[in-house]
Amino acid sequence: MKLITVVVHGVTGKMGREVVSAICREPGIKLVGAVDVDVSRDYLVLPDGSGKVPLSSALEGMLTALKPDVMIDFSVAKAALPAIQIALKKKVYVVSGTTGLTNTDLAKIDKLAKANGVGAIVASNFALSAVVMMHLAGIAARYFDYAEIIELHHNTKADAPSGTAISTAKAMAQAKGKPFNKLPVEKGRTLKSRGEQVRGIPIHSVRLPGLLAHQEVLLGAMGQTLSIRHDTVGRDCYMPGVMLSVKAIVGLKGLTVGLGPILGLEG
Ligand SMILES: NC(=O)c1ccc[n+]([C@@H]2O[C@H](COP(=O)([O-])OP(=O)(O)OC[C@H]3O[C@@H](n4cnc5c(N)ncnc54)[C@H](O)[C@@H]3O)[C@@H](O)[C@H]2O)c1
User: How much distance in Å is there from the Cα of 76 to the middle of ligand 1?
Assistant: First the structure.
């Protein structure tokens, strides 16, 4: 089987470094180059001791010289779209996990990918456990009128509720076909202590050192509850999803949003 060659964009970052290690472990995928705005030399030593690859801040030159099959991008929102556009114009497939791309950005990526006959996957969460948890929550939502979400993250996470929790609540209401039941409010009180309401689902956010990323969806009905929980304990949790996406994208055309379609979890 032909090796899939990859350039990593945002390679100096936390996710970029994790991706380099994952590629070194992955049969069938080979790192051929690395790009970051923040580089102090022109090569990257591979963590498994297998050698080094070119490192540069000039993405376009790197893609022209190396002609990789795929670019993996974990950078920042303002850098991701231009980088993805450069890659697609060079007929390089794209796997991007950078968060903050807008719907307008996604529409541009889809159009450009189709025009160049290549594919791009943009996923805000590559952790398989999170993706499957959201899918199961969507199935369960049809059978319950009451649900709550507790999402727990490390104390340096700035946003709350998490994007995954908000997406989960929206997907559950969509699967159900209507918002969940409104909470009763005691006269003269507010719902402040009952979490942020998204489509009738209260989301409770916990931020503590010692946590990474965790979420529990609780559903209740007469005399019973159902809990669906996922826990991630290391940044490597994203890597099986990223490696799967690299192998799946070669051969797809246009934009795929999220890991669901790759895992056969649509609908
Ligand atoms: N999809 C997922 O499952 C998932 C999981 C974790 C993080 N993320 C996202 O991945 C992205 C990266 O996260 P991180 O923790 O590695 O952040 P980080 O800050 O550690 O790394 C970002 C890297 O991008 C580089 N960069 C910035 N501007 C650039 C430019 N113009 N050109 C090239 N490189 C540039 C930085 O130098 C840095 O090395 C963030 O958007 C984060 O939210 C997604």
Answer: 5
